Every structure is written in structure tokens, then in C-alpha cells.
Input
Amino acid sequence: MAKLKIIFSATSLFCTRIEWALKLKGLEYELTVEDWDKGKSELLWKSNPVHKKVPVLLDNGVVIAESKVILEYIDEKWKGGDLYPLLPQYPHERAQARFWAQFADDKMTLLTFSPAACHADALEKEKAVESTLESFGYLEKQIKGKKFFAGDKIGYLDLVVGWIPHWLGVIEETGGIKILDAESFPSLHEWAQNFIKIPLIKECVPPRDMLVNYSTTLLSYLRSSAPNKP
Output
């Protein structure tokens, strides 16, 4: 069987969720790492001409782009028997997992990295943080009373929001903001501690120093590109 390939960046939280999924399925794969200092590779431009973003999964001539689409492709193609299921068994539970995964990417992941969230202006930053905290509050309700979003074992939604335990701390440090604490979000905080302790999850997490350097550079760019208030 041909080995799967991921067009990948170690600093991308969207890429790591694909690695986690492949490891949970017990599938072999190799990483084709993008070097952003040299610009986007020809392979990336050819494989994802619409968005030109990582991750991209290459499966024996089949090209799949966009991380949540890739997760579903992996779960649909390699299922049954002893293979680890990512999405829940029942249709209504799968629909809920997809809804909250999209919500998390739209309202939490993207907002956390927005220019406003790391704006030098205190008022702008406060508004962005308040909006992000509201979104985290919805997720807190979803995890309350459960070890993982999928129940006793990690699943699709856990992988999508799996950036929180490691990446969020980096964003908080470099952006001068505070989002997740045990007092405000006790269930989500406990989930984060449980999730990052799983050996398979932990081994794919990039070094914190790498993420701090990347985040510092990114925030500097976002601040410089943000429109100036009169």
C-alpha cells in the first residue's frame, strides 16, 4: 500500500490534527514539510491551487485539502473492524460534532489569531478577548461532565480543538491576553490537561520555542497590517 503524504507545516495547528487522526487509525504516512522562508512549494501550489494552504493529504494520486475535510475522508476510507472511529456512530451525534468543529474554527481559532485579538490598542484587544471568551463558554458547556468531547475516548471534535492545550498558551504569552483558566472554564481546562497527556497526542506537538518564535513574528505582522484608528 502506498504511503500517505501530508503537505505539512510544524507551526500549523490545522496540520497536527491530521497527524493525530492518522496515528489513531494506525496508518503510516510521511511529511512533506513546507519551508515558509523559501515561499510556498510547487507541490503545494499544484495540490491546493484554490487556497494554497496546508494541510493537504496525498493518497496514491488522490488529493484532499482542508483539515476538517481530510479528517472526514480519513474516517470514511479507513473504518470498521479494529480501526479507531473519529466521528460518532449515530447521525445526530455526527451532525453535532461537525457543527461544533465548524464553530470552533470560525469563532475561536480564527478569532484568537485575528489582528484585533493582539491589537496594541487596549480597547480593541478587550473587545476581541470578550468575544473569544463567549465562544469558549459555549465549548465549556459541551465538555461539562465528560472526559473528552467524544466521551471516554477522543474523537473528531477533540482533534479539531486539540490546539487549545498547547497553542493557546503560546498565543496568550505572545499576545498579552488571557483566555483559558481553571476558574472560568473548569471543565475545558480539565479536558485540556487530559488531552495533552495522551502519548500519541503529545508526540506530535511541536516544540514550544518554535511556536513562540512563529507566533511573535505572526503577531508583529498582524499588528502592522491592522488598519489604524483615526
